[in-house]
Write a structure and sequence with these properties.
Elements: E1 11-12, E2 17-18, E3 23-24, E4 29-30, E5 35-36, E6 41-42, E7 51-53, E8 58-59, H1 61-65, H2 90-123, H3 125-134
Parallel strand pairs: 1-4, 2-5, 3-6, 5-7
Antiparallel strand pairs: 7-8
């Protein structure tokens, strides 16, 4: 808020992606195709096709200089949104999901085995009571 008259809210051009929790403050402009990282605090204009991250937000130099040479580990993809131009490796994603599914199957088998062992232990309660009564000094021993 301000006592000054005039524009107080940001302008978002077409294709802007703003990450969760980001704050875009004041009468600034976020250019076409720009990306704002999660929890960033933007207080200055963001040029078109740039990526802004941090508190306060700064423009990633990799995005400004040469978009083709940007390392995928530092690039920003909000909510798994990808362009047709991105070199997204579907085979790697498929292998990762397959690995998770296999691990889940192993864990399910282990849980089933543990459940069977717990059931077997709970079925043995009567024999546990008999063993306990053998050591009870208040009751006479059986067979004597």
């Amino acid at each position: 808020t301000s006592w000054n008259k005039g524009k107080r809210h940001p302008t978002l051009e077409n294709g802007v992606v703003i990450g969760a929790g980001a704050k875009v403050l004041g009468p600034i402009t976020v250019g076409t195709g720009a990306k704002i990282g999660s929890n960033a605090v933007v207080v200055k204009d963001v040029p078109a096709n740039a990526t802004a991250v941090g508190i306060p937000a700064r423009i990633l130099e990799e995005e400004k200089t040469n978009k083709e040479n940007v390392n995928k580990s530092t690039s920003f993809t909000a909510y798994a949104v990808i362009d047709d131009n991105d070199k997204f490796n579907h085979e790697a994603m498929s292998k990762a999901l397959q690995s998770l599914l296999e691990r889940n199957a192993v864990q399910d088998a282990q849980l089933a085995e543990m459940a069977l062992q717990l059931k077997a232990l709970s079925d043995d309660v009567v024999s546990d009571e008999e063993v306990a009564s053998a050591f009870d000094v208040k009751q006479p021993a059986k067979g004597k």
